[in-house]
Amino acid sequence: MESTAGPPLSGRRAQAARNDELIREAARAVFTADPGAPIAAVAERAGVGISALYRRYGSKEGLLQHLADDGMDRYLAQVEGALAATEGAGAAALRDALAAFLHRCLDLGAGAITMRLAGEFPVTAEMSAKGRRIHAATRELLDRAKAAGVLRPDVEVGDVSVILEYLHTVRIGDDERMGVLQHRYLALMLDGLARTGAGPLPGPAPDWQELRDRYDG
After folding, report:
1. Which residues bind DNA (predicted)?
2. Higher pLDDT, 104 or 55
């Protein structure tokens, strides 16, 4: 089978690509913990010079915007994948797919980083359109789970957004321990989300406009 991979990067380009990945991973960790952290903290965690960071992104605002957009792309890929996998699926498959989807989002930081950074960067028209696409796809996935009886009927898209954001604020121990605890609390929340016979939740979930208004900060 013929390879479709492109030619290998030159030494300088390969190093730049590695630095870029280090910067993005460091920035996700630093700004998820503290959106107000200085950009120097990202360079320090990534182990790169701050000049390399500024050459790539220009400013902290530019880096935050890139991270948020990347987080949206990650989430969108996951939710559309979950929709494709659950087309015509039964209750058990939908329950498992919804849980797997949320655990993957947690691992990837998908969606949560965008919510966490709300108000810290300018939102482009493209990002706004992508947000509506994400909202619609998530609603469709939740509606399928509700129709199958594996999700309580009063859970909405805004609940999922806030739950993922809150889980990423769990900061106990090193990175490995923190990841274990985040998944522990997601497992507990999934039990609550599946309690279809429970009493109604207090008040409505955040709607699209409430979620969108956070970005005008």
Report:
1. 38-57
2. 104
